[in-house]
Amino acid sequence: MITANPARSKYVWLVLPMFAVLAAVSGPRFAAADQPAAQPAPAATPFVIHMKNFAFVPDKASIPVGTTVVWKNDDNVAHTAAASGKDGFDSDNLDGGKSFSHTFKAAGTFHYVCAYHPDMRGTLTVGNASAAATATPEAPPSPSGY
Ligand SMILES: [Cu+2]
């Protein structure tokens, strides 16, 4: 396959080493186990809040910054989860079985509510433990018997 075209043969000598490099790079990748570090592991497992019996479960939670929260509607009626203000969020309509996720990138306290059921409320405290303690100064009464 010797060609008389000097430009083309120069191209071939450029391309052949590239194939060799590609083969060297891709060979071990194919030999390794499935998907070696193809995608980084999620930063953290999502924190799931259920919408169940017209309530958020749990209705109060503290999570670290960077956590993804998933609201999952376990009821047969539609709900929403929305917090107004800075870094707020709004799931919009969530029919039964649907879910909504939001990643909290900044610390803060979020009081959220279902647009259809105003008594359906929840509080999320995003940040470290001391921030959570500051946000809820009143300690819950200790259970009886202690
Ligand atoms: Cu609701």
Low-confidence stretches: 129-139
Number of helices: 2
Give the ordered list of helices and strands.
HEEEEEEEEEH
Average pLDDT metric:
77
Q: What is the CATH level 1 assignment of the domain at 47-135?
A: Mainly Beta
Shape: globular
The main sheet comes to: 4 strands, mixed
Sheet with most strands: strand arrangement: 2-1-4-7
What Rg is obtained from the alpha carbons, in whole angstroms?
Answer: 27 Å
Number-wise, the strands total 9
Search tags:
Immunoglobulin-like; globular
Question: What does the model show?
Answer:
This protein has a domain at 47-135: Cupredoxins -  blue copper proteins (Immunoglobulin-like). It contains 2 helices and 9 strands, in the order αβββββββββα. It has helices spanning 6-31, 129-135; strands spanning 47-52, 55-57, 60-63, 68-73, 82-83, 89-90, 99-103, 108-113, 121-126. The chain is globular and about 65 Å long. The relative contact order is 0.15. Residues 129-139 have low confidence and may be disordered.
Quick synopsis:
This protein is 23% helix and 27% strand. It has 146 residues and is an alpha/beta fold. The protein has a domain at 47-135: Cupredoxins -  blue copper proteins (Immunoglobulin-like, Sandwich).
Question: What is the element layout, followed by pairings?
Answer:
Blueprint: H1 6-31, E1 47-52, E2 55-57, E3 60-63, E4 68-73, E5 82-83, E6 89-90, E7 99-103, E8 108-113, E9 121-126, H2 129-135
Parallel strand pairs: 1-4, 3-9
Antiparallel strand pairs: 1-2, 4-7, 5-6, 8-9
The structure holds copper (II) ion (CU).
